[in-house]
């Protein structure tokens, strides 16, 4: 039974459920519904950042200090552009954000003056549509609840159609 975790510890979901905690569930961002978010995630992963595979998943954090530090270090100096919002990848709710070290990177069209680099550490930042960035928070919350992803659990982020 050590291969299965049964609990009611998922915030917003009081029912008891069971998961295989080492299995990295898949959070999918739809290219057709969230094109700027999906583009950013795809480019960030293609640059070497983790999260897309079982071999290099992200790890969820529920520690608000880490989450806020990840956001602040990644997007604290984001430009103010009407209709756009700063997105960071890996997501702030992962231990792989800038609180764990590394530097920022970006891509053409992201409205940041940073180097484009590669490798498995650091974060990518990009100004994406504010509506997509706001929707991402809800998508992530629904995913964590549905899949019972708790603090320290692995998860993957992929882009679908």
Question: Can you walk me through this structure?
Answer:
This protein is α/β, with parallel strands linked by helices. 25% of the residues lie in helices and 22% in strands. It has three helices and eight strands, in the order βββαβαβββαβ. The strands form three sheets. The chain has a three-stranded mixed sheet with strand order 3-8-4. The radius of gyration is 16 Å and the shape is globular. It starts with a strand and ends with a strand.
Major β-sheet profile: 3 strands, mixed
Strand order of the largest sheet: 3-8-4
Please report the distance between the alpha carbons of the first and last residues.
36 Å
| Unreliable stretches | none
SSE order: EEEHEHEEEHE
Defining traits:
8 strands, 3 helices, 161 residues, alpha/beta
What is this structure's SSE topology?
Layout lengths: L4 E3 L9 E3 L5 E6 L4 H12 L11 E2 L4 H12 L8 E6 L14 E2 L17 E7 H17 L7 E7 L1
Parallel strand pairs: 3-8, 6-7
Antiparallel strand pairs: 1-2, 4-8, 5-7
The gist of it:
The protein has 161 residues and is of the alpha/beta class.
């Amino acid at each position: 039974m050590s291969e299965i975790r049964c609990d009611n510890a998922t915030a917003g979901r009081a029912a008891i459920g069971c998961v295989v905690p080492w299995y990295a569930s898949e959070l999918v961002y739809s290219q057709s519904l969230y094109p700027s978010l999906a583009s950013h995630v795809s480019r960030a992963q293609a640059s070497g950042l983790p999260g897309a595979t079982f071999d290099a998943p992200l790890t969820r954090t529920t520690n608000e200090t880490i989450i806020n530090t990840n956001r602040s270090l990644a997007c604290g100096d984001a430009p103010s552009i009407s209709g756009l919002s700063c997105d960071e990848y890996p997501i702030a709710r992962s231990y792989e954000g800038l609180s764990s070290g590394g530097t920022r990177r970006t891509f053409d069209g992201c409205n940041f003056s940073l180097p484009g680099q590669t490798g498995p550490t650091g974060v990518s930042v990009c100004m994406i549509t504010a509506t997509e960035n706001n929707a991402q928070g809800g998508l992530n919350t629904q995913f964590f609840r549905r899949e019972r992803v708790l603090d320290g659990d692995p998860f993957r982020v992929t882009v679908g159609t």
